[in-house]
TrEMBL record:
Organism name: marine sediment metagenome
InterPro entries: Pectin_lyas_fold (IPR012334), Pectin_lyase_fold/virulence (IPR011050)
Protein name: Right handed beta helix domain-containing protein
Entry coiled-coil feature ranges: none
Length: 245
């Protein structure tokens, strides 16, 4: 499936719906899905869920690329009960944190502004995973932290210092600015700089302008190409990130 080039604004703006089903884009049980080039802003709630992109329960082989998400009342992206691989790359995510109880997610080349990462394990439920590139179920597993990666990202004001390490976690070659902090378990080749970017957001009827300044700090990081060779094969699903997305 491909969800691309959409402008999604003011989801549930009357706040008529509560519960856990509100999001601008939401999927259950998909494989080989790309969500690309969407502008999402204004996701509202009575209570509980109000997410930008919600990858909900038993999805595999997902790529979230080149999206801009801001002004959501809950998480910009919620990755719920998936076992990977999920590739989140080249996005601009502003405001609410990413929320996850999934595994095997790769975050690469993103701009995160006031957007941290919150992991909440779910050991009560078990979601399915599949033979790669099919919907043939081969197993079920609870939502536990494993094999997440962060490479070549820029964090402004909020970073990864609250992320606790887990099996297969890796983080490196990131840039942390304006008070954002790196992980306690990785980021050997990352840089931290208090530089103030002066980032502003200006909404237009059919778009948005995001401006900020930058010093030379990001150019000090010589990050690797983020590919299947770097991240490896994720053990639960026996699959890696691939150009097939």
């Amino acid at each position: 499936s491909l969800i691309s080039g959409n402008f999604i604004e003011d989801t549930n703006y009357r706040k008529e719906f509560g519960g856990w089903e509100t999001a601008a884009i939401k999927f259950h049980q998909t494989t080989d899905t790309v969500i690309s080039g969407n502008l999402i802003r204004g996701v509202f709630r009575q209570q509980q869920g109000a997410f930008g992109i919600w990858i909900d329960f038993g999805n595999q082989g997902i790529r979230i690329i080149r999206n801009i998400i801001y002004n959501t009342e809950a998480a910009t992206v919620f990755l719920e009960m998936n076992h990977g691989p999920i590739l989140v790359d080249n996005n601009i995510l502003i405001g609410q944190p990413i929320r996850s109880n999934s595994e095997a997610t790769v975050f690469a080349h993103n701009l995160f502004v006031d957007c941290g990462y919150e992991y909440r394990p779910d050991t009560r439920r078990r979601s399915q995973y599949y033979k790669p590139h099919t919907t043939k179920v081969v197993g079920r597993k609870s939502g536990t932290a494993q094999d997440d990666k962060w490479f070549n990202n820029i964090f402004i004001r909020r970073g990864l210092d609250r992320v606790k390490t887990a099996s297969g976690y890796a983080s490196d070659y990131n840039v942390f600015l304006e008070g954002a902090k790196k992980t306690s378990f990785g980021d050997k080749n990352s840089v931290v700089d208090p530089y103030v970017t002066g980032l502003t957001i200006r909404a237009h009827p059919r778009g948005v302008t995001i401006t900020f300044s930058m010093n030379d700090t990001p150019f000090l990081v010589k990050g690797p190409w983020v590919d299947a060779e770097l991240v490896g094969i994720f053990p639960t699903v026996g699959q890696t990130i691939e150009d097939r997305y």
